[in-house]
Design goal:
The chain is an all-beta fold. The protein contains 1 helix and 32 strands. The chain has a 6-stranded antiparallel sheet, with no helix packed on it. Strands 1-32-31-30 form a 4-stranded antiparallel sheet. The longest helix has 10 residues, at about 360-365.
């Protein structure tokens, strides 16, 4: 593999990146950093000439950064107990504050609803930003939140499964989806008929609502921190293994079918982030050493667009220990496409933000 890269532009933000998000319009990028601030950029080819705009936000860190309900902005919850709406062109707006508590997860729907989790409790805000009744309680701390594609249901994961809440029905009885273990991140199939949960014990579990048939995908090397459906919902790409594991959701779903495997990290590498292209059967994947690939799902070869980052010396905190140790290159901690699918942004834990464009990848491929 070539040691060169298809980068169109890079920025050194001098603070570790913790997550990335693109708004619902697909034209603005938010970068959450380890000091609680954000950097905002256009999520278009114009980003090549842009300087990130700094926004001071949390007195701590953002624990959850998501696209907001208004299509233009972002929603962030932090360990300072505050929830913000961030306008890409304006100042952030504080919409909730809970002193001495952590906002573990935030979520929004295109219909204007917003939700956030504190421990076992789920708070839902209506289109005007007012609380919809009392907090919704769960059996344990919440591991994830996700609105259904049509916004009518809100799924919350926790120990022992997930709970589904109807958003437009008063006093509705929640639907409980049970499966042993601790459930974390959630993702809905684009048609809203299947919900999947990544689990603490390095597995996926899913429920199909038409017949309540369940599915379990096991054997991952690490926890699955990143998932994404391809444009038409044909494949679910997942992190947590040396290769990108893509489960087929065509012809009845993944029951009894092997996954498609993309890339071959080797040398102890693990996929940390995946990003499915918004229009094509293509998946971008980032690894725990900074390597990034593009993997087509039509049988073509994968393309390396960013090589691994060399091992770096990391200071030790233990008294009397060696002054430093070698750590694997900076992991990819954020990976997102813009709405048009012509820009891919990657955030590394060493504070680097990378932009790949269709033009820069094409030039790279022509000279590879």
């Amino acid at each position: 593999m070539s040691s060169s890269s298809a980068i169109a532009r890079s920025w050194n933000l001098n603070v570790p990146v913790t997550s990335l998000a693109v708004n619902r319009n697909g034209d603005a990028l938010a970068v959450a950093l380890g000091d609680g601030s954000l950097r905002l950029l256009p999520a278009t080819s114009h980003a090549v000439e842009a300087a990130p705009r700094e926004v001071k936000l949390h007195d701590g860190v953002s624990l959850s950064l998501q696209p907001d309900a208004d299509a233009q902005g972002f929603l962030s919850g932090g360990d300072d107990g505050r929830v913000f709406i961030i306008d890409p062109a304006g100042a952030p707006t504080l919409i909730a504050e809970h002193k001495d508590q952590w906002i573990d997860h935030v979520a929004s729907s295109a219909e204007g609803l917003r939700a956030y989790a504190i421990g076992k409790n789920l708070h839902v805000l209506d289109e005007e930003g007012k609380l919809q009744g009392a907090p919704l309680s769960h059996p344990s701390s919440l591991g994830g939140l996700q609105f259904s594609p049509n916004g009518k249901r809100l799924a919350a994961s926790h120990y022992g499964g997930a709970t589904l809440w109807w958003m437009n029905a008063k006093d509705s009885v929640p639907v409980k989806l049970e499966w042993k273990g601790s459930h974390l991140g959630l993702i809905w199939h684009p048609d809203g008929k299947i919900l999947l949960s990544s689990m603490q014990d390095a597995a996926l579990h899913g429920w199909r609502f038409a017949d309540m048939k369940e599915m379990s995908m096991e054997g991952y090397a690490a926890k699955i921190h990143s998932t994404g459906f391809t444009a038409r919902g044909r494949y679910l790409a997942t992190s947590g293994a040396p290769q990108v594991v893509c489960w087929p959701f065509v012809g009845g779903g993944p029951w009894g079918k092997p996954p498609v495997m993309l890339g071959g990290g080797g040398e102890g590498r693990l996929v940390t982030r995946v990003a499915a292209h918004p229009k094509d059967e293509l998946v971008a994947a980032g690894y725990d050493d900074g390597m990034i690939i593009l993997g087509p799902l039509d049988g073509r070869m994968e393309m390396l667009i960013h090589p691994p980052v060399g091992a770096v010396a990391v200071a030790t905190a233990q008294a009397g220990a060696e002054p430093s140790r070698l750590k694997k290159g900076a992991a990819v901690v954020g990976l997102v496409w813009n709405g048009a699918g012509d820009c891919l942004f990657a955030g590394l834990e060493n504070g680097q933000l990378l932009l790949f464009t269709i033009a820069s990848v094409s030039r790279f491929a022509a000279h590879a």
